[in-house]
Design brief:
2 domains; Serine Threonine Protein Phosphatase 5, Tetratricopeptide repeat; single chain; mainly alpha; Lysozyme
């Protein structure tokens, strides 16, 4: 015998079942989204650059999470420090435009230049339209993240100096620089620490400031090889510019070539004079071979005082 249920009953029953299914789907969807966010947050805490970048985008847009520009900016900075080039470019745009901060065209230009050096095509397209003045420091959060990342990738404590010495012996001749001079400089500059950061934001083994790193195409100042190549490139250039005068080259490495030219010799800064004295007490050769065709010598070289 076939039982026929009244149509109103069936309608109410189907509606109830539909509501239950919809609630279940919504609950499942919310649970899945919550799980995704928890996974992203956990990966970000471990320093995963992709997770940091994804979270930064989410907090920038809002929707899935409450929009939070300050948090987004901080996450972009951490992602950039962990090597995400897109985040580095975004960080440059943040500083240039002043997104929830005081605008700084110099820092923005520096970061966008760094992103371009690391292969960002979008950054290369933007370069012609940004400030010509490049800043000399990067945000503290970026420096901290780069250093933290370097710690996990750095050489083991035992034998660090020996490993760096081997790297110097391999690379220095390629840049026509005496390895003994490089070792003396590193000893004074960073005490062989790949994660060293000075109060003036000079970074890594050869203590490159960000502007110098950009100038010589250094992608990661806390990477021993990248840092050495940048420092060696600068030393080779200075050797040609000051025609192999070791004291002047060291003074320029510390204070800048323009400063040496302005003072017609080693600047009267205690820091620079002590710096030159410490290195030349280790590396005693007053002159060094140089690649003359690399750059024309300083126009004021003939008027530079030899006794300082």
């Amino acid at each position: 015998m076939k039982i026929m249920l009244p149509r109103p009953y069936l309608t109410r029953r189907l509606a109830a079942l539909g509501s239950l299914a919809l609630c279940g789907a919504l609950l499942f969807g919310n649970a899945t989204a919550a799980d995704d966010m928890a996974s992203l947050e956990a990966a970000a805490k471990r320093g995963n650059a992709t997770a940091l970048m994804t979270l930064a985008e989410k907090y920038k847009r809002g929707g899935e999470v409450t929009r939070d520009i300050l948090k987004s900016n901080a996450l972009y900075c951490k992602a950039a420090g962990r090597g995400n080039v897109d985040a580095l470019l975004e960080l440059g745009l943040i500083h240039a435009s002043g997104r929830e901060m005081i605008p700084n065209d110099g820092v923005g230009a520096l970061l966008i230049n760094m992103a371009a050096e690391r292969g960002s095509e979008r950054a290369k397209e933007i370069l012609p339209y940004i400030s010509r003045g490049v800043g000399s420091f990067v945000p503290a959060c970026l420096t901290a993240e780069m250093a933290a990342a370097a710690v996990t990738q750095s050489l083991p404590v035992t034998g660090v100096r020996k490993d760096i010495e081997l790297l110097v012996q391999q690379l220095a001749p390629q840049y026509s620089v005496d390895p003994d001079l490089v070792m003396a400089l590193i000893n004074v500059e960073s005490r062989f620490s790949t994660t060293a950061v000075s109060p003036k934001n000079a970074q890594g083994l050869m203590q490159l400031i960000p502007a110098t790193a950009v100038r010589f195409g250094v992608k990661n100042t806390f990477n021993a090889t990248d840092n050495l190549k940048g420092g060696l490139s600068y030393l080779r250039w200075l050797m040609a510019y000051f025609k192999g005068d070791v004291a002047l080259v060291l003074a320029a490495y510390n204070a800048g070539e323009e400063t040496v030219e302005r003072y017609r010799g080693i600047p009267p800064y205690k820091e620079t004079r002590d710096y030159v004295s410490r290195i030349t007490s280790i590396y005693t050769k007053p002159n060094h071979p140089y690649v003359a065709e690399l750059v024309a010598p300083s126009a004021v070289l003939s008027r530079i005082k030899r006794v300082n």
